[in-house]
User: Which sequence fits this backbone?
């Protein structure tokens, strides 16, 4: 819902361009999800919920810079690439790289956001349509000759301007990377003065239970309690949650 809102809201007006941005967002995301699941099934023989979510995220990240300035067919192509290239870097490159194995990236942000985001920025420079750029920027700017995707540049005989746009996209990617490294580092330096940036080895062995007193992703507090938790009872809000006690094979007594 949020991604639909900020991609569709980029033009700051209710327009054809805003509608196209919403449509492209869902088309690219759905294509990326399916691509990721197909690769999971082809390589591992099984699809997974986590894989589906990762495919969705990479599709959303990839289409964001291009949502309102590319045609639907381009959104599909971007979805195929966003569901396959980050999959390859995550499932193949990451597992073989000793350096990446040392990085504590539990949410795989490098692949779902950095790789997919850079991919989206580059592909925007390839597929940006002059006509859609005119809708986005308005008729006061000569966008037909200013903002031209590389593929349209070949078609229009404006190859130089197409390469110029790709160069602008690459420059933007470098700026964002540098900005994020600096900003995130400063944020971490401040946060570590208040709370540790990493849980202790003991707490990590226990997991979320140690930090929050409840199991992650347990709906309505129905997570099992661990005996070595620092918390004595499982409480979801003001509701005392009954904890299961084993009685026998296949039987559980609620107390």
Assistant:
């Amino acid at each position: 819902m949020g991604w639909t809102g900020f991609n569709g809201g980029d033009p700051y007006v209710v327009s054809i361009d805003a509608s196209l941005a919403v449509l492209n967002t869902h088309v690219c995301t759905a294509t990326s999800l399916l691509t990721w699941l197909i690769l999971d099934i082809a390589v591992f023989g099984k699809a997974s919920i986590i894989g589906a979510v990762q495919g969705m995220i990479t599709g959303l990240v990839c289409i964001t810079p291009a949502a309102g300035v590319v045609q639907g067919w381009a959104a599909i192509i971007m979805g195929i690439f966003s569901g396959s290239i980050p999959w390859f870097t995550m499932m193949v490159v990451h597992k073989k790289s000793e350096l990446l194995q040392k990085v504590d990236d539990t949410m795989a942000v490098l692949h779902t956001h950095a790789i997919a985001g850079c991919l989206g920025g580059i592909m925007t420079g390839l597929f940006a349509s002059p006509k859609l750029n005119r809708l986005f920027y308005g008729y006061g700017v000569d966008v037909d000759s200013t903002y031209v995707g590389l593929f349209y540049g070949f078609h229009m005989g404006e190859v130089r301007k197409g390469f110029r746009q790709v160069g602008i996209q690459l420059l933007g990617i470098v700026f964002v990377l540098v900005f994020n490294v600096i900003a995130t580092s400063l944020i971490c330096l401040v946060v570590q003065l208040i709370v540790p940036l990493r849980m202790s080895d003991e707490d990590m062995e226990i997991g979320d239970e140690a930090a929050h007193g409840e199991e992650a992703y347990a709906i309505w507090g129905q997570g099992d309690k661990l005996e070595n938790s620092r918390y004595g009872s499982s409480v979801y809000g003001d509701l005392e949650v009954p904890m299961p006690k084993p009685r026998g094979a296949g039987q559980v007594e609620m107390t």
